[in-house]
């Protein structure tokens, strides 16, 4: 209930005092402290049939836990819906759940005017008294909030439901655990984070201002020692962001503690809601020890009947233990305690239970000691879809036909089809849903769950003849559950190779005009029965590494089927790659007709570049065979011969190798040319072509040059000690730096360059260089210390490093005026000016003099050093006496925000 006492700012203090006395006496009985914990949950319209549901209509349930021993009561509650409206309802349920706790339930309903995000707020006076970790808890409001997102495109949503009551008992020196038993009916992802308990402070217009309660501290700030063995270290209080398990290791001071936490609801990577629960933990003295529950992680295929034992032990013999289970799947799942130490959990899973996130069942075991203590353990149970059955792959025309049985789980929405080029040893493991990328399979399509066939013709490029292809499929559920099934055991087939197949495109001579490529192919493996002679090979070529739809031009033909080799000449193999295509023709009716075309293949293209104190080789290809079967060979010219210097793995598209001069421990020599070629090793996944396919790149040469700059040095600047400055102190900055030559940084530094700027907004300018053996520099003959510096290192090849760290120095501000001067013409103390015992770095001064009545006598901005001779603005001498001044001084400084300072004081003129 709320008590609103009017208050007017003009009430006399004495009257205020008596009102306060009366209020305090009255509030102890009517406004008694009582609220211990609670939360607000929500769900969208559940009207049936579904077509009649209103996505803007929401139902809310608030559960409040109150102190049985309090005289206060809340027969009604008001909930603010976050859109400027609120509703007051009567309490729907009022029951005692522990000897000291009431559980109050309130139901609300609201229809919003449109989609959006809304924060619901409930607040009530007052919290239960004597909460240890906040100030005067009985004088602070109790606040609950819940955040929802209304999206008409996703009309169904339930906020997380919290099934385990937020009232619990702990004891000093023993580990305390709790779990809220959060459940999301839609299968959304849940995340947990701790939050301080909240209160409401209304503004002048009675609008709620939600903020942390006064004096909030986390429970671990009140003593305790962390476990386990050996005990020691500071206590901790934390929540597992995934499971919601709260751990207090360990409680210290006795008393009641309140903490809050958010349960966030995430769908497709965005947060769509959150529930704030405020819970209370009562720390009581006892020698009792809590029981210990078993813990399990389960993963089952939909349709599996789960029958699991729940066991508990108690270090204190004779205690009677009660085991409880909390979960959104109870029912249809069931739990039954069999005896003091055992229970049985059963769940017949179904296809409708498949989802990405595991279900959580929270088991709580509590003993019956005078101070009962509990253990709580969450079990995570993941339900996955069964693998599709009857999956087969068969040749059909120029492609492959996949067939499977109708998928047994009607809740699935899609079937995803995957293909791998080459053989597969993938066998789905239990709980390994979908198709992991590590298997080498690539998704090539998807179909509706009711479809039972798919035809793969390789899309634009076609499938490769003579190649082995493996396929698998799995079922997928859509959001919010996003469940998946096990994949089907892969089915593999080999496409017939009744056409010639390329096996080699190897560069045999590197030249811009007389280059040569050796091209080889196979005879048709499945024979030529049924073809009309004469038969003919036709070989075509195109520049570059391209696909089958490029503009190929025929370069060779042969009617001899045993002729499977051709050397292509007069090519620019030094600068270009080439792709070849072999075709088989026969002559029905005397006219040449294409039998079929195998996939084209390219030559290996190698590039070399000198970089990072090494030579980097990159090579590419586009071929129908698999070039990842064996390591590729790296050859470098040494003397008049090419020598194998290394071998490396490659990818389906190419490879990379970095020559750092490690072969035979012979470093690369600067300005020397190095030449290389690469031999690739590949094979078809076809048992009828079992041999390795070796193909050479062209020869690529590059000059080894040092193009790697040294690392930047570490710069420091001498410190300016203002108290030690005198007028004779030279105005200069001394720079010192340390070269960074730790590997992989180079040590071949030739010289250093010093850069300077006078202000932060200026650009750096080079002011000096020093040889490599000089690592200090004095920047002298300055009018100001203010400025910034960086240093770079440059090697003998002219590579300049990045700039060093920035070293900056600012001027000292020194401005001191005397309290007396004697402008009598004796050239001694004739002018009023700042003390010049130290450098002052004054840029300008606006100097103003006032008489003792505040009248302005003199003002000048022309002289930074003031040099006032005791005259007024007209040049007339002012009488002897005391005058007041204001000096607005602008200094030469590095910080533009700190350039101006104002000094005020007095001065006496004596002539």
TrEMBL record:
Q: Which Pfam family is an annotated match for this chain, by its short name?
A: CHU_C
Q: Which residues form the signal peptide?
A: none
**InterPro entries for this protein:** FN3_dom, FN3_sf, Ig-like_fold, T9SS_type_B
Q: Which domain of life is it from?
A: Bacteria
What protein is this chain from?
Answer: Gliding motility-associated C-terminal domain-containing protein
Per the UniProt record, the source organism is Adhaeribacter swui
């Amino acid at each position: 209930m709320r008590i609103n006492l009017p208050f007017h700012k003009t009430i006399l203090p004495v009257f205020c005092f008596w009102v306060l006395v009366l209020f305090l006496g009255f509030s102890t009985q009517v406004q008694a402290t009582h609220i211990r914990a609670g939360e607000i949950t929500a769900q969208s319209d559940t009207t049936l049939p579904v077509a009649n549901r209103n996505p803007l209509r929401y139902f809310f349930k608030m559960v409040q836990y109150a102190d049985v021993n309090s005289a206060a009561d809340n027969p009604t509650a008001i909930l603010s819906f976050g859109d400027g409206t609120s509703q007051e309802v009567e309490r729907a349920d009022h029951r005692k759940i522990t000897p000291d706790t009431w559980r109050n339930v309130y139901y609300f309903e609201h229809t919003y005017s449109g989609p959006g995000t809304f924060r619901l707020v409930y607040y009530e006076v007052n919290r239960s008294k004597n909460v240890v970790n906040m100030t005067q808890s009985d004088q602070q409001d109790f606040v609950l909030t819940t955040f929802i997102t209304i999206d008409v495109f996703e009309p169904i949503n339930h906020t997380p439901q919290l099934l385990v009551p937020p009232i619990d008992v702990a004891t000093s020196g023993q580990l305390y655990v709790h779990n809220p038993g959060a459940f999301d009916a839609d299968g959304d992802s849940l995340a947990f984070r701790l939050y301080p308990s909240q209160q409401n402070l209304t503004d002048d217009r009675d609008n709620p201002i939600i903020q942390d309660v006064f004096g909030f501290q986390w429970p671990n700030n009140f003593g305790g020692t962390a476990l386990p063995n050996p005990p020691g270290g500071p206590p901790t209080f934390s929540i597992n962001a995934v499971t919601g398990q709260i751990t207090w290791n360990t409680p210290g001071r006795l008393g009641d503690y309140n903490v809050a936490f958010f349960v966030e609801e995430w769908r497709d990577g965005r947060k769509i809601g959150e529930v704030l629960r405020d819970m209370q933990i009562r720390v009581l003295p006892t020698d009792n020890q809590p029981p210990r529950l078993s813990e399990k992680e389960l993963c089952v295929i939909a349709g599996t009947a789960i029958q699991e034992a729940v066991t508990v032990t108690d270090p204190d013999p004779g205690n009677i233990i009660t085991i409880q289970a909390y979960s959104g799947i109870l029912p249809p799942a069931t739990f039954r305690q069999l005896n003091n130490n055992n229970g049985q959990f059963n769940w017949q899973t179904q296809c409708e239970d498949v989802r990405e996130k595991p279900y959580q069942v929270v088991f709580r075991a509590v003993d019956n000691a005078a101070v009962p203590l509990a253990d709580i353990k969450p079990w995570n149970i993941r339900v996955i879809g069964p693998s599709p059955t009857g999956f087969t792959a068969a040749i059909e025309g120029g492609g492959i036909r996949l067939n499977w049985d109708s998928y047994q789980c009607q809740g699935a929405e899609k079937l995803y089809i995957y293909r791998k080029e080459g053989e597969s040893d993938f066998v789905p493991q239990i709980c390994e849903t979908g198709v992991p990328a590590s298997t080498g399979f690539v998704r090539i399509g998807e179909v509706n769950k009711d479809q039972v066939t798919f035809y793969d013709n390789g899309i634009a490029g076609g499938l490769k003849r003579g190649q082995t292809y493996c396929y698998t499929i799995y079922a997928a559920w859509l959001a919010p559950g996003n469940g998946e099934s096990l994949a089907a055991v892969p089915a593999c087939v080999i496409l017939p190779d009744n056409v010639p197949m390329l096996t080699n495109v190897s560069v045999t001579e590197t030249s811009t005009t007389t280059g040569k490529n050796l091209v080889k192919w196979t005879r048709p493996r499945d024979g030529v029965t049924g073809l009309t002679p004469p038969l003919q090979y036709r070989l075509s070529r195109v520049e570059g590494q391209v696909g089958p739809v490029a503009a190929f031009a025929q370069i060779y033909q042969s009617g001899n089927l045993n002729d499977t080799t051709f050397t292509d000449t007069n090519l620019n193999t030094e600068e270009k790659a080439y792709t070849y295509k072999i075709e088989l023709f026969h002559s029905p009716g005397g006219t040449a007709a294409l039998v079929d075309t195998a996939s084209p293949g390219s030559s290996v293209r190698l590039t070399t570049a000198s970089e990072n104190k090494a030579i980097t080789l990159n090579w590419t290809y586009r071929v129908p065979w698999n070039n990842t079967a064996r390591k590729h060979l790296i050859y470098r010219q040494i003397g008049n011969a090419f020598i194998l210097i290394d071998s490396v793995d490659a990818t389906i598209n190419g490879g990379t190798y970095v020559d750092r001069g490690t072969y035979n421990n012979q470093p690369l020599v600067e300005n020397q040319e190095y030449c290389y070629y690469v031999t690739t090793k590949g094979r078809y996944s076809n048992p009828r072509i079992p041999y390795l396919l070796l193909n050479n790149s062209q020869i690529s040469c590059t000059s080894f040059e040092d193009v790697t700059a040294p690392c930047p040095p570490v710069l420091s600047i001498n410190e300016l000690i203002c108290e030690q400055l005198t007028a004779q102190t030279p105005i200069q900055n001394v720079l010192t730096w340390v070269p960074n030559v730790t590997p992989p940084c180079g040590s071949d530094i030739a010289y250093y360059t010093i850069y300077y700027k006078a202000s932060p907004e200026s650009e750096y300018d080079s002011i000096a260089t020093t040889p490599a053996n000089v690592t200090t520099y004095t920047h002298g003959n300055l009018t100001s210390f203010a400025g910034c510096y960086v240093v770079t290192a440059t090697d003998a090849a002219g590579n300049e490093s990045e700039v060093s760290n920035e070293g900056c120095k600012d001027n000292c501000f020194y401005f001191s005026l005397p309290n007396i001067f004697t402008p009598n013409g004796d050239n001694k103390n004739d002018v009023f000016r700042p003390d010049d015992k130290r450098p002052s770095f004054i840029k300008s001064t606006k100097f103003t003099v006032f008489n003792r009545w505040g009248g302005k006598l003199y003002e000048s901005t022309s002289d930074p050093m003031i040099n006032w001779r005791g005259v007024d603005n007209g040049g007339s001498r002012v009488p002897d006496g005391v005058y007041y001044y204001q000096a607005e001084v602008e200094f030469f400084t590095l910080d533009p925000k700190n350039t101006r300072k104002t000094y005020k004081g007095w001065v006496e003129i004596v002539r």
